Amino acid sequence: MLRAMAEAEVGDDQREGDPTTRKLEATAAELLGMDGGLYVPSGTMANLIAVLVHTRDRRGLVLEASSHMATVEAQGIATLTQARTYPVRGAFGVMASDDVQAAFDRAAADGISVGLFCVENTHNSAGGTLLTESEMKRLISLGRDRGAAVHVDGARIFNASVALGTPAARLVEGADSAMFCISKGLGAPVGSVLCGRAYFVAAAKQARMWCGGAMRQSGVIAAAGIVGLKDYPERFVTDHANARRLAEGLSKLPLFEIDMRSVQTNMVYVRVANPEFDPTQFERYCYERGIRVRANKERFRFVLHHQISSKDVDKTVEVIEQFTRSCLPPL
């Protein structure tokens, strides 16, 4: 990636275009089966742009209640758009058809026309859980049948693709727009790509300027994304296996409770089982032994990526077991 960044051919992305950025955008669009792509600084901005474009005329926004857009990104959407949100509670990130219909009906009762229905795959807060191709088709059809555009928050859509053995384009087929992060498991330092139909990409480019996301010689960072997209299937298989290995190891310790049903890709969410657990002490103990984790007293996650080996996983389990024995009183 560093070599590709140093050797990247660049131009002015806001004017005549940056050739390396164009290549990343074209590669992303092809992988998702879309007409075009737009490179933006972050996944949050990609989702915000989708909301700005799709809810310009119809303000209603239906989305899963614990999705990233409904939680972490909620304040930005509320402050920077006119969208009115109608959340749907899912199970492991999967929304039931009746519940989605009820959200559309709630909006109609308020006199609000729903312009956008959002689906997240993989679903972050549910544990990096998967929506299968059939579930995606059902939800995308449901949104479109109700007259809404459909946007897929696919920050980790390629994790879903690898875990399911299904091309990413089939997972987002029928959606009006979709995004993915090159700075997550793909390993690049900066950015996301927002893809969609030609009309959407043109409108999104204008909205990107409103958000301050237009860039100049962006090829120096886009180049890393091109590299990351070349061999992700092999790397993600290992990431997913290591996540399972970590979950199985941690589940044997009395400190954490883990719902193994949620360990489907590269994340392991744990619930703290010991009321004496001090997250600050835990973070410091782990950090001093080469493990970086951000904890709290209730629930937090471990995320696996290509720089973490199975030996690193075993060391992590060993360190946390030592912490449990030496720093916590028995339950």
Map the helices and strands.
Elements: H1 2-6, H2 19-32, E1 36-40, H3 43-54, E2 60-64, H4 74-80, E3 84-88, H5 97-109, E4 114-120, H6 133-145, E5 149-153, H7 157-164, H8 168-171, E6 177-181, E7 192-196, H9 198-210, H10 219-228, H11 232-250, E8 256-257, E9 267-272, H12 279-287, E10 299-303, H13 310-327
Question: What structural keywords apply?
Answer:
Aspartate Aminotransferase, domain 1; 331 residues; alpha/beta; Aspartate Aminotransferase, domain 2
Describe this protein's structure.
This protein has helices at 2-6, 19-32, 43-54, 74-80, 97-109, 133-145, 157-164, 168-171, 198-210, 219-228, 232-250, 279-287, 310-327, and strands at residues 36-40, 60-64, 84-88, 114-120, 149-153, 177-181, 192-196, 256-257, 267-272, 299-303. A seven-stranded mixed sheet has the order 1-7-6-5-4-2-3, with helices on both faces. It has a three-stranded antiparallel sheet with strand order 8-9-10. It folds into two domains: 2-228, Type I PLP-dependent aspartate aminotransferase-like (Major domain) (Aspartate Aminotransferase, domain 2, 3-Layer(aba) Sandwich); 232-324, Alpha-Beta Complex (Aspartate Aminotransferase, domain 1), CATH 3.90.1150. The termini are far apart. Helix 6 (133-145) links the parallel strand 4 (114-120) and strand 5 (149-153). The model has no long low-confidence stretch (mean pLDDT 95). The protein has 331 residues and is an alpha/beta fold.
